[in-house]
Each structure stands twice: as C-alpha cells, then as structure tokens.
Write a structure and sequence with these properties.
Blueprint lengths: L1 H33 L9 H7 L12 H8 L4 E9 L2 E8 L5 E4 L11 H12 L3 E7 L16 E6 L6 E5 L5 E5 L1 H9 L1 H4 L4 H4 L2 H28 L18 H25 L15 H8 L9 H7 L5 E7 L2 E7 L6 E3 L11 H9 L7 E7 L17 E6 L6 E4 L6 E5 L1 H15 L9 H31 L4 H4 L4
Antiparallel strand pairs: 1-2, 1-8, 2-3, 4-5, 5-6, 6-7, 8-9, 9-10, 11-12, 12-13, 13-14
Helix pairs in contact: 1-8, 1-14, 8-9, 9-13, 9-14
Length: 489
C-alpha cells in the first residue's frame, strides 16, 4: 500500500510539474518586472500636476446652486475643478450616479466629443494630439473601476515617450495616462502575471475561475515536490557517495537542491497567489456598510459661499471639494506639491474636526458594538501602510467589540473614515499580501532590503521552475537522453 501511494506521489509530481512548470517560471520572471513597473495608473499627484488651476473668474455657479440644479439625492461630495479650461462641479452621491455640471452656466455635462477630448488632453498633457479614438475598453482600461467613466477617448499625444491619455466621454475627466515604457514592460509583467489578456479580463468571473483553477494544480505540484524532496534527502552519515544529500545528478540535482532550499517559499508564494482571487469568498469582508458610512458622514448641504473669498483662500488650487464627516461639513483644497488644506465652509477659517462629534459618530458606526480601544499612529505599521508610497499620517485606529472585530482608521484632521477592516481582512493581509509581496516586518521600512529578499527568493523559484522546464522537455522529447537527467548515484 505504501509503495503504491509513493508511486502515485511521484507520478502526480511528474505530470503536474510537466503541465505547470512553464507557467510557474513565467510567474517568477514577470513578478520581478512588476517589482519595478506596476500596472498603469493615474496617481493623485499626477492628476494634480496635469490639471489647470481653477479659473475663478469663469465660475458663476456656486456649490448650493449646482447642488440644486443637479436634482435630489444624498450627496457624498461636491468638487470644483477644471475640465480642460472650463470649470465644472462634480457631484458624487450615496444613492445615485455621479453628476457633472458646468460651473459657468449650470448646464449638465453628459457627453464629451472628440474635439473637446483632444483639447482637454492637450492642456493636461502639455503636448499636441496625434489621434483620438473612442473606445469602451482596451488592455489598460479593462478593470471595472473605469466602468462609471465609459466610453473613453483614447488620446495619443505627440512627442517622445508615447504618452496616451484616457478622457471620459461621459464626464470629461482624465482617468488614466500610460507611456510606451509602461505598456512595453507590462506586456512582460502584469499582463502575463495576472493572466490578464483583455478578452479574458472583460469577463471578471470567468477570469477569476481561470486564475483559481490554473494556480490550484501548481500548488499540488509544489506540495508533492516538497514532499518528495524531503523523502529523497539524506543527511549525516546517511549521505550518498561523495557526501551528497541528493541521489540525483545533472539537472535533477539542481532541481532537488533548489527545491530543498526554496521549495517552502515556492509553496507559500503559489498559495498566496491562489488567494488573490479569494477562492470560496472566505475573506470577503463586511467591513463598514455603505449605509453606516453615510450615517457617519452626515448630511452634506453645500452652503452659499462667497466665491470671491473662496477664490482668495484657494488660489492655485486644482480641486476644491466640499465633504462631510461625523456630521461636520468642511472644504478640502488640493494643489500640486502642497499638503491638503481644510476650511470651514461658513467662515473659510481653518477647519479642525470636533473630537466630541467624531467620538459620538464613532459610537454609532458599528451596530450593536462600541469602541473598546483607540490608538494614535504617527507612523505606518503592519495594518496602515503602502509599499507604493506614503500613507496619510497621523491617523487614529479605533477597534470595536463586534463579532467581526472591526477596526477603522480615522483622519483626525477631518474625522473622515479612511479604511476599515475586520479580522478576516487582517488575516488576508498576511496570507495574501504578506506572503506574496513580502511587505512585513523590517522589510516594510527598508525598500532595498525588501527588493533584495524578493530577488533572492524569486531566483530560487526560477531555478526550481526552469530546471523543471528542461526536465519536462527531456521527459517528453528527449527519448533515451531523458535518463541522464534522472540518473542517480
């Protein structure tokens, strides 16, 4: 019986390895590319740099007028910004689709034509336009986060770098920029690594199932390989001739030794990658519901502010946003290269969140639960961080005694909820992002050490997978020569 089980163990590893070795080698190589060139995105800083300063002389419609013209709805935020060289109000709601209105005459913006999109892109990118094409999706805009902005104008700019801007045909907002360098390296990085061809990714559930069922067998190959590697290893006096710990020679020796050294990492890395699509939705987090967030924010009723005074207080701003948190309205002013500023809407004096109001709102945030611990964070930690850039600091972490063990992070300057996570979300942080991206412990504060660690572990994974590819080739096509790859001492 034991002999039969061992035979099935070897056969499973052999044929699953043959089927998956190329895929695993590709994952390691593409992952190293992603370490330096992420999937294209338009960061908040890039958006601010591209935007024109608000033309206050053209603003004739105030926030209260714009809100009234947009119709009813529970408003979440209201922002004044430029659409090319025309000021607009952008309203976001809790219970309906967003709305954009001209700040010149209050007319709704429902469609942006080709010439207008080209003009917006020219001002944003600082270059002439070579071509503008209306698309629904392409390889770089396939994620669902762009759905509210579709269709999109794909605007190619002149000059070096092959820069392309994507302008929403619904709102006129610039939602993405890419360069030729980003696109080239992503064909070698994110696209193969995430199994992300557009035709598949346009079907989200089908893509999720493919990732889950393709990576699953890779896990089986890793588990059986690690098991066999330990079984075939000899230490101490039991070593093979010449003091070797492995019975193999040639490519099989390198495969065995690399597997012993890096097999556990390979296993955890494949496991965490499999978790990226959350099989079974086990880590789906309830967090804080949309209704609870809305109740926490309170009613946003933009006041009839003096536009001239506001213009003086927000000189050079690219966005002036009205929002509310803990029942307190405030104005957020954003400009490139400067920290956000906050004003009280009624007086335009600096805004500071009222702690008593925040405490009251927090006590009602999670139904049937109360805050039981609070922690002031002046620096990032394992649950409040980003490997892609700095996170807002300081923040306050508030822990609740509900069954889900909810935590929320609050901006003390405004009282806004920045992030919520429950026990499942915290477990996912370690099992997926921790094991897959190695953003843990001292590596979080030392990007160079983190990169070196990932390189060393990935090279071990590449040795395991590349030797697997060659061994598989010999097994399938090498005929008698395949025996050389498996020769024992």
């Amino acid at each position: 019986m034991a002999h039969r089980l061992k035979r099935w163990l070897y056969l499973t590893h052999r044929w699953v390895g043959i089927a998956t070795c190329l895929l695993i080698a590709m994952w390691f190589a593409s992952g190293l590319v992603m370490l330096y060139v992420p999937f294209p995105d338009l960061t908040a800083e890039e958006w601010l740099e591209g935007q024109q300063p608000i033309d206050w002389q053209a603003v004739a419609v105030g926030p209260a007028q714009a809100a009234q013209a947009a119709g009813g709805g529970a408003m979440r935020s209201q922002a004044l910004e430029m659409q090319g060289d025309v000021p607009v109000w952008r309203m976001a709601y809790w219970d309906r689709d967003p709305t954009t209105l001209s700040a010149v005459d209050g007319a709704p913006v429902t469609h942006v034509g080709q010439e207008e999109a080209k003009h917006i892109a020219t001002l944003f990118g600082g270059a002439a336009v070579e071509r503008a094409v209306l698309i629904r999706t392409d390889q770089w805009t396939v994620p669902g986060g762009y759905d509210p902005q579709r269709p999109l104008w794909r605007v190619e700019l002149a000059g070096e770098g092959g820069r392309i801007l994507y302008v929403s045909a619904r709102t006129g907002d610039v939602v993405l920029d890419t360069s030729a360098r980003e696109r080239f390296w992503n064909w070698l990085g994110s696209v193969p690594h995430w199994l992300y061809p557009r035709a598949l990714r346009e079907m989200p559930e089908a893509w999720r199932q493919v990732v889950m069922w393709v990576s699953g067998p890779c896990l089986i190959g890793a588990v059986t390989g690690l098991w066999i590697g330990v079984l075939r290893m000899r230490l101490g006096r039991r070593r093979f001739s010449g003091g070797r710990i492995t019975p193999y020679r040639g490519w099989m020796k390198w495969h065995h030794v690399a597997g012993l050294g890096g097999g556990l990492f390979l296993l955890t890395w494949l496991f965490s990658g499999w978790l990226s699509v959350d099989p079974g939705r086990f880590f789906a987090s309830g967090g804080v519901s949309g209704d609870a967030r809305q109740a926490y924010a309170g009613t946003l009723a933009p006041p009839a502010v003096d536009l001239r005074r506001l213009a003086g207080a927000a000189e050079g701003a690219r966005r002036v946003q009205f929002a509310a948190a803990a029942g307190q309205p405030f104005i957020r002013i954003e400009a490139p290269g400067a920290a956000e500023r906050y004003l009280a809407p009624s007086t335009l004096a600096p805004f500071v969140a009222d702690k008593a109001a925040v405490d009251t709102a927090l006590s009602q945030l999670v139904p049937g639960a109360r805050p039981v611990a609070r922690e002031w964070l002046a620096r990032s930690d394992s649950y409040w961080y980003s490997v892609d850039g700095p996170v807002p600091l300081p923040v306050e972490r508030v822990k609740f005694d509900d069954p889900a063990a909810t935590w929320v992070h609050v901006d003390p300057a405004t009282g806004e909820l920045l992030r919520a996570m429950d026990a499942r979300g915290r477990a996912y942080r370690w099992l997926y992002t921790g094991l897959h991206r190695w953003d843990m412990g001292p590596l979080m504060d030392n990007p160079l050490a983190r990169q070196l660690t990932i390189w060393l572990l990935s090279l071990a994974g590449l040795v395991i997978s590349v030797t697997s590819v060659w061994i598989a080739w010999l097994r399938l096509f090498g005929g008698r020569g395949a025996k050389g790859a498996r020769r024992r001492a």
